[in-house]
Amino acid sequence: MTPRLVVLGTGFGAFSLLKNLSPSRYAVTVVSPRNHFLFSPLLPSTTVGTIEFLSIAEPIRTAVSYANFVQAEAVGLDTSRKVICCKSVFDGKEFPIEYDVLVIAVGAESNTFGIEGVKEHTLFLKELAHARAIRQKVLDNFEAASLPTISEEERKKLLHFVVVGGGPTGVEYAAELADFFDDEVKAHFPHLVQDARITLVEAGKQILSTFDERLSRYATKLFQRRRIKFIMNTPVKKVEAGKVYLSSGEVLETGLIVWSTGNGANAFVKSLPFQKDSAGRLLTDRYLRVLGEKDIFALGDCATLQDYTQPATAQVAMQAGKYLAKLLNEVSAPSKAEKDIAPFERQNFGMLAYIGKDEALADLPFMKWSGFLTWIFWRAAYLTKLVSFKNKLQVLFDWIRSRIFGRDISRF
Ligand code: FAD
Ligand code: NAI
Q1: What is the atom index within ligand 1 of the atom nearest the CA of 33?
Q2: Which pLDDT score, from 0 to 100, does residue 339 have?
Q3: How far is CA 203 from the centre of its chain?
Q4: pLDDT the model gives residue 308
Q5: Does domain 4-108+265-340 have CATH number 3.40.50.720?
Q6: Which is the closest atom of ligand 1 to the Cα of 267?
Q7: Per-residue pLDDT at 340
Q8: In the chain, where are the structural domains located?
Q9: For the domain bounded by 118-262+350-405, which CATH number is listed?
Q10: Each residue's pLDDT tens digit, 32-41
Q11: If we measure between CA atoms, which residue out of 45, 49, 4, 47 comes closest to residue 25?
Q12: How far apart are CA 403 and CA 183, in angstroms?
């Protein structure tokens, strides 16, 4: 009988695995609450309309037609019976799916650190739905601030945008928002230019702390020139509707809070009885097998190698997915991987980040670049990395459209 392979997730790790897997080797079922792959590196650009939402999404049924797709969330695992308990995203009903080989690639969740009010009063930036909510709120705030009935105090509050977390997500979002101010707000809301403000709050002493220090300083200077206010060394300790409470005692009044303080463990991963690192990621051996398990693999943001910690990036998840496809295609049995195949070795290709005003950073293993040419490199690199020809055309078209006609400011 063809062995049953169940893949949990439709993100970078799962997608790269599914694209490289030999379709005849396994009967594949993909389980995920999201029915599409999302190219998150360009997600910040969709929050202001530089790129449209569907240009960076690829339906899983179109991309991986050989697999059976089930739109549900994994909520439990019984290793003795080799059964995954799934919960429908539509009616919440639970049902089992049996597996012979299981791949856990469920990613991570936005970390709130349990800080009061974050879930209720801030927006994350991880999924298309988040980007759409942010875009709608930005446009709503500018329209509401233009009403004749608005008080000056309320207008200033609506147009104060707070980004919490100065990692690459927060920085790239703030950069896109500042571009939106420079282009669309100046052109279509000129009466509001003076009141529109961005504040970036960071608990540590620098933004982009995983990048080379010179590049981080370069981005800081560019942001300062663009009137993005920094509040450094200051963790947020509480959030209420329209209010951010800082550890310094200061309270920021704001019309939108984007929360980007990094990854926390996914609820399903938290429920699993396997060994994890201090960040709650599943520990695997060098063949990506969950420690102590023969037929369960884990990769991407929800996992890391034992003794060899991995960054939580798309780059690593994609490499791991490709490696696991090779392993599952070639080995006689997953439990005997070490006999047939070399262990997983991550290659570091460096990091890229957009910092606004047609400038980017490239922290490559042998080169540190910043500025306009790096931005061209950034665009070229992500255009090639997009997973379908359709997405590449759509993104290219969006860049040209937004450059010539401006970003669309319709609210729907
Ligand atoms: P994900 O891509 O997050 O996918 C997880 C999948 O699991 C999703 O389909 C989800 O719906 C599904 N899932 C969740 N829970 C369950 C469950 N219980 N059962 C079944 N399925 C489940 N990295 C880079 O290398 N370069 C970049 O430029 C970059 N830019 C980024 C920009 C932003 C705004 C963000 C948020 C991240 C960025 N990253 C970047 C990080 C990158 O997106 C992640 O490292 C990558 O997505 C991890 O891949 P993954 O497959 O582990 O998880
Ligand atoms: P991150 O973990 O990289 O950064 C989060 C930031 O939030 C940190 O600087 C931290 O000090 C700060 N922070 C934490 N708690 C805080 C608090 N209470 N108040 C204020 N600040 C607080 O998270 P991010 O940016 O969401 O990235 C997640 C992952 O995705 C990382 O692995 C990152 O490398 C990857 N990524 C990569 C990108 C790229 O390569 N261009 C773009 C976006 C994400």
Answers
A1: 11
A2: 79
A3: 20
A4: 86
A5: no
A6: 18
A7: 80
A8: 4-108+265-340, 118-262+350-405
A9: 3.50.50.100
A10: 999 999 999 9
A11: 4
A12: 10
Tell me if 85 sits within 8 A of 74, measured CB to CB: yes
Tokens 């020139």 correspond to 225
β pairing state of 243-246 and 236-240: antiparallel
110 CB within 6 A, ligand 2? no
Instruction: State the pLDDT at residue 335.
Output: 78
Q: What is the pLDDT of residues 82-133, one digit of tens each?
A: 999 999 999 999 999 999 999 999 999 999 999 999 999 999 999 999 999 9
The verdict on the CB of residue 168 being under 6 Å from ligand 2 is yes
Q: Note the pLDDT tens digit of each residue in 218-249.
A: 999 999 998 899 999 999 999 999 999 999 99
Mutate to test the pocket of ligand 1, among 266, 301, 324 (most ligand atoms within 8 A of CB): 301
C-alpha span between 235 and 367 (Å, rounded): 32
CA of 108 to the centre of ligand 1 (A): 7
**Average pLDDT of the residues in 50-59:** 97
Mind listing the pLDDT tens digit for each residue in 277-295?
999 999 999 999 999 999 9
Is the CB of 210 within 6 Å of ligand 2?
A: yes
118-262+350-405 matches 4-108+265-340 in CATH topology: yes
Average pLDDT for residues 24-28, to the nearest whole number?
A: 94
Per-residue pLDDT, 78: 97
Amino acid at 287: Y
Query: Could you write out the DSSP letters of every residue in 56-104?
Result: GEEEHHHHTTTSEEE-EEEEEEETTTTEEEEEETTT--EEEEE-SEEEE
Tokens of 65: 């037609």
Ligand nearest to the CA of 72: 1
Question: Quick one: tokens of 51?
Answer: 């790129």
Helix (H, G, I), strand (E, B) or coil at 357: coil
219 close to ligand 2 (CB < 6 Angstrom):
no
